[in-house]
Amino acid sequence: MKKLILLSGSPCVGKTTVGRHLFEQYENSAYLDGDWCWCVNPFSVTDKRLRNGDKSMSFVLSNYLSSGFEYVFFTSVVLTNSSIRNNILKDITATDYEVIGFTLTCSEETLIKRHDERGDEGDTNFYWLHLPPYSTDYVIDTDGKTISEIAQVIKQYIGSI
Q1: If I label 79, which of 53, 87, 100, 159 is the partner at 20 to 30 A Cα–Cα?
Q2: For 58-103, how does the pLDDT look when each residue is reduced to its tens digit (9 = 90+)?
Q3: Does the model's pTM come out above 0.85?
Q4: Three-state secondary structure string covering the chain
Q5: Residues 137/101, Cβ–Cβ less than 8 Å
């Protein structure tokens, strides 16, 4: 059965980097970074038009899953919001796939360090970091782990399902 692997968590927690790493390790796979569907100017998380980006996410995921990819990796901060996640998933038209969700987390200190290393402007925002994980997600603490180590933990979960 095809697998849709979701990676959620705070900005700067490692979703994109881990998602790309996993995508490169799995044959017959596809990757979608949810940020690609939110690339608008001006950007504001309160802009109601961003929900159209969610529809784009559903559409791309549907196409990947319907195209026969065995593994589809999807990274997005919006997956931390259960309502938005559920709406994205319900609008996927593909069939015969299972969803495996992961929430990546880390300490505030690690998030500050990653934020600074990435060169993001402004103060680090901890809002997303302290949201409760989606109820069925596997939670992975990324503190002190390399990208390869985090990916290995995720691969173990994927392989055991």
Answers
A1: 159
A2: 999 999 999 999 999 999 999 999 999 999 999 999 999 999 999 9
A3: yes
A4: CEEEEEEEECCCCCHHHHHHHHHHHCCCEEEEEHHHHHCCCCCCCCCCCHHHHHHHHHHHHHHHHHCCCCEEEEECHHHHCHHHHHHHHHCCCCCCEEEEEEEEECCHHHHHHHHHHHCCCCCCCCCHHHCCCCCCCEEEECCCCCHHHHHHHHHHHHHHC
A5: yes
